[in-house]
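Q: I'm writing a short explainer about PGG domain-containing protein for a general audience and would like to include a description of its predicted shape. Could you first generate the structure from this sequence?
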Amino acid sequence: MSNVQENDTLNTLYEVSLRGSVSELETLIGRDPLILHRISLTAFTETPLHISALLGHLDFTKSLLTHRPQLALETDHCKRTPLHLASAEGHVEIVQVLLQTCEDAWLMSDQDGRIPLHYAAMRGRTEVARQLISGAKSESVMVFDGSGKTMFHLCVEHNHLETLKTLVEVGNVTDDFLNCGDFHHGNTILHLAVMFKQLESVRYLLSISKIKEEANIQNKMGYTALDMLKHVPKDMRSFQIKLMLMDAGFKSNENNQVHHPPSASIIDVPPSTTMNPNEKFWSLKRVNKVLQHKSGRLEEMRGMLSLVSTMISTVTFGVVMDPPGHDLPASMWASAQYREMFTRLLTMNTISFIASLGVTLLLISGVPLKNEVTMGLLSVGTCVCLTFLVLTYIHAVPLNKNMYFGDTFSVLFSWLGLVGAVVLFTIIRVIYKLAKVLYHGAKVLYHGAKGD
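A: Of course. Here's the predicted structure. Afterward I'll give you a sentence or two in plain language.
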């Protein structure tokens, strides 16, 4: 047979595989018994079995495997076997035939590190998945793909709840594997279900005791499943999911608030003797955790402080550009008293201006503000700005023509009293937080020494 005739015969074979005609296949094999062996010599990126498995030609697939069973392990340009394609398309009977012909085909991975079961999970082919994990192939459920995702991750990503249930119920899965995070982001399947706001999937996952017990697992960004809701658009589904998570006793790692179900009882757990009390108490993480600002108005406070500091900067800058008393007669400016008063005004104004710029710089510098100490410093700094702004005003009034100011000292002392009360409250609050840390540390050290 010449090369031209051989190429024509092979082209005809591929055309026949598209039609799935068994009779034409038998005719071609009768004319050239080696035709299926010459497939590897062609430039085609896939075999006729790939085409047959993809299109669901069951009888044609059986005939190909009868004449040459090795075709079940041939791969295309993406390293996919015919079993990959049949699994993705959901051809259950073809999957059965391929597995009967070559049992090892289920474990072959393509260029993305995915075995046939990964494709069944991605496409929601529940019956195919059941067939692939039956018998000795149940361990295939615990195979990661090239991106570090499990079958469960793929089911949730593509929203195939029934397939997920099948994999969990039929597959030989360990409890820890259900809470396994993906390699890149560390998201568990519950993280993904919450992020994609899959209400039914979340409800099902919470019904699994092992997942519910490990409710507060964090991903690589430090987010629990409940934290994920803070980074998705708010709607009724996200609200319902939040209620389910709160009822299940989930907590948010960002604000350190534990959400217990209404019927749950709070049990005091004594300090563990397996951990060094000194390390547990004196770690900076522990101190920062206690001092963390728990108010939900943190962003609102940040915005108000930024607005106030910017306003003060603008006002004090305007005093320099258009100073008070410019319309007074020159004879009054010749007085040493007025010159001294104007000098004090500029001093007070400059202090207020610099302090307001400092507060603004601190707010925009990215310094973490979820902390009582930092917020206290900002509050004190803002009080300083406002105090010297009041002093600037008091010194500016006498420099304006036809203006009279009453009892200056009464107003000044009233303001200083108010500022002092605010500063005192802030200092007491910070000291109280630090005292709680010291008390807790002493208590832990006492129990640790007692346990030894």
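A: For your explainer, you could say: Residues 255-291 have pLDDT under 50 and may be disordered.
Q: Perfect, that's easy to follow.
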